[in-house]
Amino acid sequence: MPPHPEVPAALRRLRDHGFRLFTLTDNTLEISGRQLDAAGVMDLFERRFSVDETVRRHKPAPEAYQSVAAALQADPGDICLIASHVWDTLGAVAASWQAALISSRGQAPWIRGNGDDVGESRLLS
């Protein structure tokens, strides 16, 4: 599946402003590598992580996020996951990461327990 048109430029902008970029996937590194190559963004990532090749616990298990923080030698609170899946952002927040949920037009809104609609570009933390 190709990235949304704005994604490659947004990733380049983050990298050019000093953000360390990495991926964390439930897929194998081979599969995610093909996807990133096809999207033309492979070179933007410092590292790629696969739960299949590390903790063998799929996201949103805390071990998936904890293993990445340990490998990067980073404080979990200094890491921000940007994803389009609510369950992934909630898993990251539960592991003490920061997280941003990116929603696309037509994607069902996520309604929090208090009834608030968490729409586009709202930070979850």
What do you see in this structure?
This protein has 125 residues and is α/β, with parallel strands linked by helices. The two termini are 28 Å apart. Strand 3, helix 4 (86-94) and strand 4 (98-101) form a beta-alpha-beta unit. The protein is globular and about 30 Å long. The longest helix is centred in the N-terminal third of the chain and has 11 residues, at 29-39. The protein has a three-stranded mixed beta sheet with strand order 3-4-7, covered by helices on one side. It is built from four helices and seven strands.
Secondary-structure blueprint of this entry?
Layout: H1 7-16, E1 22-25, H2 29-39, E2 47-50, H3 62-72, E3 80-83, H4 86-94, E4 98-101, E5 110-111, E6 117-118, E7 123-124
Parallel strand pairs: 1-2, 3-4
Antiparallel strand pairs: 4-7, 5-6
